[in-house]
Design brief:
three-stranded mixed beta sheet; alpha/beta; Rossmann fold
């Protein structure tokens, strides 16, 4: 097992803090949320869209021109946000400790969980933030969770969380209480590139 980092050290890692994965991603178009997700987030936002690891917040800012900005919230570890219109909330905070004040009809995390330490712990928190009709969609490579494999996939699906191994996509409809037999040990920021071609973080657990 490699030398593992705790969350404080991980947040200072150049792989995590300087990640530019979503800095320039648009709402629609070639390099966009709509292209990655396969749908226009504004059309699914309902009473609220929470975008985690939102980068500069560019997609949310563009969404604010089409819907009530007060329905939109973005969170990113690094405060590198573009100027936002009144009503749109952009928060600089780790998603492992930040907690929203309300539930959302749509929660997205586009290529953001690759840089999180306790991926399963964060996932368990996020799934409680959905409205009864809400949807969570995120990119997640289960190969970055050690140990993972088929058992983890089966446990997620048994909890009502769908995982598409080909697309590396996790989807959940409606809130869930995710109680997995994994104890977080730490993260490795020297894991190298993942399937996106960008350096990512592997998360290590002890199974109960």
């Amino acid at each position: 097992m490699p030398e593992l980092l705790d969350d404080q050290a991980l947040h200072s890692s150049s792989v995590v803090a300087n990640n530019a994965m979503n800095r320039e991603r648009q709402l629609t178009g070639v390099n966009s949320y709509a292209r990655v997700l396969g749908f226009d987030p504004v059309e699914r936002a309902g009473d609220g869209w929470l975008d985690l690891c939102c980068g500069s917040g560019r997609a949310l800012i563009q969404a604010a021109a089409r819907t009530d900005p007060a329905r939109l919230v973005g969170v990113d570890l690094v405060d590198a946000f573009a100027p936002a219109p009144p009503g749109l909330t952009l928060v600089a905070a780790p998603i492992g400790t930040w907690t929203p004040e309300r539930a959302f009809d749509l929660i997205t995390c586009v290529h953001g969980l690759h840089y999180v330490g306790d991926k399963l712990g964060v996932l368990a928190r996020i799934l409680t933030w959905l409205t009864p009709s809400g949807t969570f969609v995120a990119d997640l490579d289960l190969a970055s969770i050690r140990p993972g494999g088929r058992r983890l996939t089966a446990l997620l699906r048994a909890a009502g969380v769908d995982y598409d191994g080909r697309r590396k996509r996790i989807v959940c409809a409606g809130p869930r209480k995710l109680d997995l037999p994994y104890r977080y040990l730490g993260a490795d920021d020297r894991a190298g590139p993942n399937y996106t071609g960008q350096p990512a973080v592997n998360s290590y657990y002890e199974m109960g």
